[in-house]
Amino acid sequence: MEQLRSKKGFLCDMDGVIYHGNQLLPGVKEFVTWLQENDKQFLFLTNSSERSPRELAQKLSRMGMDVDESHFYTSALATAKFISSQSPGCTAYVIGAPGLFNALYEAGITMNDVNPDYVIVGETSNYNYESILKAVHFVQKGARLIGTNTDLTGPSEKGIIPACRALVAPIELTTGCKAYFVGKPNPLMMRTGLKLLGCHSGEAVMVGDRMDTDIVAGVETGLDTVLVLSGVTDVEEMNRFPYRPHYVLNGVGEICPRK
C-alpha cells in the first residue's frame, strides 16, 4: 500500500468509485481530501458522457466536496476531440445528453438531422425508438457510427442499468456496421488523461470498478491498477478475466493511511 500511496498521479473513474447516482460512496471524502493535502495530481476520468466537467464539479459540490472542474475529463470530451481531429467542421446526428452536445459544439461539430457525417451515441434518458430509426437510416446512408464508450452497463442507486454499448447495439445489429468507441479502454483517452496529469505511466495509477474498461485500460497503458468492489465488479467476476489488477480494495477510502 505504501507503494500505491507514493504514486504521483491518480486517474479515477467516477460511477461506482466515487458515487452511485447521487449517493456518495463511503470513504470518498477522506480519499479526495488525502489527494489534495498530499499534492497528488488527480483526474476523474469518466466514461459517462452525460455531464460536462462543470456539471460534475457542481454535482460533487452538492455532495459536500470542493473539486475544481479542471480535475474532470469525460468520454464526451474525448469523442469531440477525436472527431474534430479526424474531420474538422463535420456534422453529426447525436443521441446523448447535454454534456455530449456541449463538447461537440465547442469542438466545432454542428448538429445535422438530414445528412450527417457521423452518428454519435452516448448515454441519455431521452433514448427512444424514433432516434434509433433515424440513426439506422443515417448509418445506412453512409454516416460513420461512433460510441462515446464501451460500457455495456453502469451502476445506479436503483441497481445496474444499460450504458452506451447497450444503446449502440440496436443500430449495429440493424445496419451491420460496428461502432468505433472512444472512451476507456481506448488508448486515446488514457494518453490524454496522463498528459493532463503531467505524469508518466510509471508514476500514475488507474482506479476503477470495471475490469473490461478501467483495469484493462490501465494494464495496456502501463499503469498500476486498483479495482474497487464498490461498483459493478465483484471478486467472482474479476476472476473470469485473464488479467489482474495490482490491488483489490473495497473502496477508495482504503487508499488513505489510517490515522
Summed up, what is this model?
By secondary structure, the chain is of the alpha/beta class.
Characterization of this structure:
The structure is a single chain. The chain contains 10 helices and 15 strands. It is an alpha/beta fold and 259 residues long. It folds into 2 domains: 2-47 and 184-255, HAD superfamily/HAD-like (Rossmann fold), CATH 3.40.50; 76-181, Rossmann fold (3-Layer(aba) Sandwich). The strands form 4 sheets. It has a 6-stranded parallel β-sheet. The protein has a 5-stranded parallel β-sheet with strand order 7-6-8-9-12, sandwiched between helices. α4 packs parallel to α5 (98-106) and α6 (129-140) packs across α7. It starts with a helix and ends in a 10-residue tail after the last strand.
Features:
259 residues; alpha/beta; Rossmann fold; six-stranded parallel beta sheet; five-stranded parallel beta sheet; 10 helices; 15 strands; 21% strand
Looking at the structure, what is the overall shape? globular
Percentage of residues in strands: 15-25%
CATH level-1 class of the largest domain: Alpha Beta
Largest beta sheet, briefly? Answer: 6 strands, parallel
Approximate helicity band = 25-40%
Radius of gyration equals 18 Å
Question: What is the element string, with H for helices and E for strands?
Answer: HEEEHEHEHEHEEHEEEHEHEHEHE
| Overall residue-averaged pLDDT value | 95
Low-confidence stretches at least 5 residues in length (pLDDT < 50)?
A: none
Domains, number: 2
Distance between the termini: 15 Å
CATH topology of the largest domain: Rossmann fold
